[in-house]
Write a structure and sequence with these properties.
alpha+beta; Arc Repressor Mutant, subunit A; 118 residues; elongated
Length: 118
């Protein structure tokens, strides 16, 4: 079982949402396919996440290529989207710092066990 398997589903969704917001902030013209590839998630997950972000008012999607054969969007973070990105970043950082402290304690415990055995 990997560490990812131990993550609650909600944490995974929040991490995906944060990663999508981060990517859109730096590259608003990214396609959903490119976004999925960059983040290592399915195209369906990206589509679902983007729809939710648009529905919540965190992202505004604007059509910038009027080619009828291929629609391309510009994904712009709204002011509330920037606030959400900050909130998610802080929560993610707190979780990772707690995880880091747990790992440090586990490493110290393991070192202690090895030292006891000589």
């Amino acid at each position: 079982m990997t560490a990812k398997d131990n993550k609650p589903e909600n944490d995974t969704k929040l991490e995906t949402r944060l990663n999508v917001l981060r990517e859109l902030e730096t590259n608003p013209a990214v396609s959903q396919r490119q976004l999925a590839s960059h983040l290592g998630v399915s195209l369906g997950s990206v589509n679902y996440c983007l729809r939710a972000l648009v529905d919540k008012g965190f992202v505004k999607a604007e059509n910038f290529r009027n080619n009828p054969a291929k629609v391309q969007y510009l994904y712009l973070l709204t002011p509330s989207g920037l606030s959400e990105k900050t909130r998610l970043t802080l929560a993610f950082l707190e979780r990772k710092q707690a995880e880091y402290r747990r790992l440090q304690n586990e490493i110290e415990d393991l070192k202690g066990e090895l030292n006891e055995r000589g």
